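Researcher: First entry.
Model:
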Amino acid sequence: MAKVLMYTSAYCPYCTNAERLLHSKGVTEIEKIQVDTAPELKIAMMEKTGRRTVPQIYIGERHIGGFDDLRALDLAGGLDPLLVE
């Protein structure tokens, strides 16, 4: 299973939805970086992804984007192949 990294914050429904979708695909471990507790982590996330919102999801080295991007990738059939890398 590929490594999954997710920038997240507390009380984020999109983060929860992303986690549920990933768990439904068999992902048991998600490395989470909670950006709402440390401003420097949010700045690092924005510099790395070019985006300001959470979640920001990486599978392996590939930036997937947010929950909507993750869901669209799944609906297009592209998520499962990334997860088995």
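Researcher: Second entry.
Model:
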Amino acid sequence: MKTTLNIADDLLIEAKRFAVKRKTTLKAVVENGLRRELQADQNRSGNIEHSDFIEMGPFGLPRLKRRGQQKISSAEVYELIDKEGI
């Protein structure tokens, strides 16, 4: 679907440079950014925020909450993931 967006000149220039650097299109950069933002919003509104074990990281991805120097095994990580329904 076609649409028109008004984007600040400096942001558009930066996005075009980013697209060239990644050898992709401006359209792909905008779509990927929008998808990431929407996914992060869905994650924030889900169960993850209220979990005792899982928190949202700075890039909108779930991660285990830090609990000091306690070490846990991979099996325990998978068990927590299953328990939290991620």
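Model: Note on the second entry: Strands lie at 54-56, 62-64.
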